[in-house]
């Protein structure tokens, strides 16, 4: 990316150098230069290079954006999988806790019955 942006800036500076050189000419000389060296001959190549470099920079930026988006997508999938696994573990822990509560409730009933029998005799 850095190399392509450097190339783009180099061509833009080249274009500005040509434009300043043309602008610093006298008006009569500019008129003659426009006839002898029209835009297509003098500047078209530089403008085309600017366009190509600009397109290359856009392409690189788009590819980098897609790669970053792909990385974010993978991260989200990983986090989603981790959440699903934690949900499963949480449900299992809740099931086990319910079983323990049921066993304790049965134990309380038995203990109460034993106490009633022991105290009644």
What does this entry look like structurally?
The protein has one domain (2-120). The chain is built from 4 helices and no strands. It has helices at 2-23, 27-36, 39-42, 44-120. Helix 1 runs antiparallel to helix 4 (44-120). The longest helix is centred in the C-terminal third of the chain and has 77 residues, at 44-120. It is rod-shaped and about 130 Å long.
Descriptive tags:
121 residues; mainly alpha
Note the topology.
Blueprint: H1 2-23, H2 27-36, H3 39-42, H4 44-120
Overall number of structural domains = 1
Helix content: over 70%
SS elements, strand count: 0
The average pLDDT score comes to 90
Question: Which spans of ≥5 residues are poorly predicted at pLDDT below 50?
Answer: none
- Supply Rg: 40 Å
What general form does the structure show?
rod-shaped
What series of H and E elements makes up the topology?
HHHH
Summed up, the helix count is 4
- Strand residue percentage: under 5%
Structural class: mainly alpha
Distance between the termini: 93 Å
Major sheet description:
none
